[in-house]
Amino acid sequence: MGVLKTLWHKLGSPRWFYDMSRSWSMIFGILAVLLLGAGTLWGLAYAPADYQQGNSFRIMYLHVPTALVAQSSYLMMGIAGVVLLVWRMKLADVLAAAIVPIGFSMTLIALFTGAIWGKPTWGTWWVWDARTTSMLVLLFLFIGVGALRDAITNLETAGRACAVLAIVGMINIPIIKYSVDWWLTLHQTSSFSLVEAPTMPSSMWAPLLLNVLGMYCFLGAVLTSAVRTGILKREQNTAWVNEVVEQELA
Q1: Quick check: 11 and 20 in contact, CB under 8 A?
Q2: Quick count: other Cβ atoms within 10 Å of Cβ 192?
Q3: Strand stretches in 33-142, DSSP E
Q4: Separation of alpha carbons 224 and 95, rounded Å
Q5: In this structure, is residue 107 part of a structural domain?
Q6: Does a structural domain hold residue 176?
Q7: Nearest-CA neighbor of 63 among 128, 118, 26, 24?
Q8: Buried b (16+ CB within 10 A) or exposed e, 29-61
């Protein structure tokens, strides 16, 4: 408990995080390239065609990872909002602000690839079923949080307002997750489950797992870089930032 408490206090220091995360983007980036490269090649070139959907199912190797990362991004933003409101941790607000464009992009890609998948599978680009509609709501939530932050000039006020909106919007995450179980939908059930064995053969499921892990590593790389940039902007008038800039320019 003492170690966790010490780590928690250190996270309150933007400088400590900036120093600790120097190599994170590179590490996550390399892992993302390796995992996504292997998973995509395996899924597109070597995985067998689906017995019902044929080769159109291969869009899931992009659709599923981006959909999972989009939901995780919003969940992270909501948790960061709780941390900001309760502990007033500046790093939490920097993290929440950095997540918005990433989560928005992932949600947009998930919706677009879902439409591509839906046309040959359902015979239409879009259906207003529970899963697709709740994902569209997620996109609007990202837009709303980003617009709210841009509309308020005071950083502290903007951070608190966005934190409240992000926390309220977290109710949509379980709706997305369990929508295919709670309502009758055209959307297929979840591809991953922690309590059930995969319904696909390993030759189809394994590359999907690689791409999911790779997409999370991509999130780690991009988010770390964005947070570090956000820290420099927030702390630009402090002595330690001037020191860092001088060292990097030297």
Answers
A1: no
A2: 12
A3: none
A4: 9
A5: yes
A6: yes
A7: 118
A8: bebbeebbeebbebbeeebeeeeeeeebbbbbb
Per-residue pLDDT tens, the chain, 250 aa: give them. Answer: 677 878 888 888 899 999 999 999 999 999 999 999 999 999 999 999 887 788 888 999 999 999 999 999 999 999 999 999 999 999 999 999 999 999 999 999 999 999 999 888 888 888 888 899 999 999 999 999 999 999 999 999 999 999 999 999 999 999 999 887 777 676 676 666 655 667 778 899 999 999 999 999 999 999 999 999 999 999 988 889 888 877 776 6
Q: How far is CA 32 from CA 39, 81, 90, 106, 203, in A?
A: 10, 27, 28, 15, 20
Entry field: residues in the chain: 250
CA distance readout (Å), 140 to 87, 147, 202: 28, 10, 35
Three-state DSSP class for residue 65: helix
User: 104 to each of 23, 59, 80, 85, 180, how far by Cα in Å?
Assistant: 25, 19, 17, 23, 22
Note whether residue 22 is domain-resident: no
Which residues, including other chains, have CB under 8 Å from residue 17's CB and lie 6 or more apart? 10, 11, 91, 227, 231
* Total number of domains constituting the chain: 1
What's the confidence (pLDDT) of residue 123? 87
Range of the domain at 183: 59-191+200-236
Within-domain flag for 247: no
DSSP 166-209: HHHHTTHHHHHHHHHHHS--SSPPPS--SSS--SS-HHHHHHHH
Task: List, in sequence order, every residue forming a beta bridge with 54; answer none if it has no partner.
Answer: 50
